[in-house]
Amino acid sequence: MNRIAVGLVAGTPGGAESLALAYLASALTNGGHTPHVLTYGGSRQLEPLARELIRLDPPLVGVSLPSGHASIDAVAFILLLRTLGHAGHITVGGAWATLSCQRILESFPQIDSVVRYDGEIPIVELANRVANGADVRGTDGVCTREGGMETGFVEGDAFLQTRPLHDRFRRYAGVPSAKISAVRGCFGKCKYCGLAAVRKERKREARAAGLAASKIRALGIGGMRRRPAADVAQEMAELYHEYGVRFFHFVDENHLPADPEAALVEVQALARARGPNPHQRRRQASIRCDAATRGRGLGQLTELALRSSCARAAPRAGQLRYSEIAAYQTPAMRA
Ligand code: B12
Ligand code: SF4
């Protein structure tokens, strides 16, 4: 099997790392390939970055399109890369690319393929095929102009087995921080949310591919896929001891399950699991307004958060229906 260099590119405003690329870099390394993670903080950095990639000349380049907003610079980068002479395969991935797949391929001949949904498995298969000069059409999870929407479904959940390969740790006041993903998916169906649309589409495609409802549920398609608390704590301990990380930023769409009792079990499991020094733990979380105030289990959740040295638990309105938000309005606010 031939191995290749793979350029992985994302916009990361403010110097943050891209956790998506850290997961892809890890999967590619495990697959024997050599990832090069390149990030830009704004449009001024696009040209030097494109020139750097031309110098590296990887046969496969993957660019992250997580949102429509992020895609403006990202697509400009791809056009620049082609203008500068890059002739290798260019793929894109991320939530927005997943949903806008056909439009992207129709609008930009410079882009060869779109990786849809989780990227860990398809990017390695794509790299294998590019390395061997094989046809990339028909790669599971990869869409080309010749089709592929019907092969969007990828069996297997690399997320649960892959440890991200961090290329940097952002510092807050000199303190190293790391992003962590403990859960993929969310129980919410908020109308304005791109990720809710991604989950809905994935479920529809799984059904169309003939998967039984029981299998869809078991695989967590369209729902929440959760790593065991002990594994999350282990990752935090590794980051703490090996890299001096002291600030952990959970990027989960929604960390806790919808059911308050189940949420309580998760919080307790993470609190009990071995991880960084418990005496130095401080947490900050956004909790749904109703979760923070209502009901037995829900009240307990807030109490537990505060007792387990939660420095700040800020209620937020996201995920609530208008009727639920209205319940918190004072008569003056309603007037
Ligand atoms: C951290 C974060 C940020 C950070 C850093 C962004 C970054 N580039 O890393 C900051 C604060 C800067 C940010 C800013 C914005 N964000 Co933001 N952000 C997130 C958040 C919370 C986590 C992303 C993450 O790390 N996920 C974990 C990784 C592992 O998952 P992933 O990104 O989905 O990646 C997987 C696949 O999508 C795929 N994949 C992703 N990229 C690629 C690339 C290739 C080549 C391949 C093959 C595959 C692939 O493979 C990955 C592994 O399986 C998500 C919500 C979420 N939980 O996902 C929102 C989210 C991505 N952000 C969103 C938005 C709207 C924005 C902003 C536009 C907000 C604004 N108005 O300014 C800006 C855009 C800025 C920019 N230019 O990127 C939306 C996008 C909505 C949509 N798709 O319609 C999301 C989904 C939140 C939401 N629920 O609405 N964001
Ligand atoms: S709770 Fe957040 S991640 Fe979940 S569907 Fe609503 S906006 Fe999207």
3D structure, described in words:
The chain has 335 residues and is α/β, with parallel strands linked by helices. Helices cover 41% and strands 18% of the residues. It contains 14 helices and 13 strands. The chain has helices at 19-30, 46-56, 68-83, 95-99, 101-107, 120-131, 194-208, 213-218, 229-243, 260-272, 289-293, 296-307, 322-326, 331-334; strands spanning 5-11, 34-40, 60-64, 89-93, 113-115, 142-143, 170-172, 175-180, 183-184, 225-226, 247-250, 283-288, 310-316. The strands form 4 sheets. The protein has a 6-stranded mixed β-sheet, sandwiched between helices. Strands 7-8-11 form a 3-stranded mixed β-sheet, with helices on one face. The protein has a two-stranded antiparallel ribbon with strand order 9-10. The radius of gyration is 21 Å and the shape is globular. The N and C termini lie far apart (69 Å). The mean pLDDT is 84. Residues 186, 188-190, 193, 195-196, 253-254, 318-319 line the site of iron/sulfur cluster.
Salient structural properties:
binds iron/sulfur cluster, 335 residues, globular, binds cobalamin, six-stranded mixed sheet, three-stranded mixed sheet, single chain, 2 domains, alpha/beta, Rossmann fold
Summarize the structure in short.
By secondary structure, this protein is α/β, with parallel strands linked by helices.
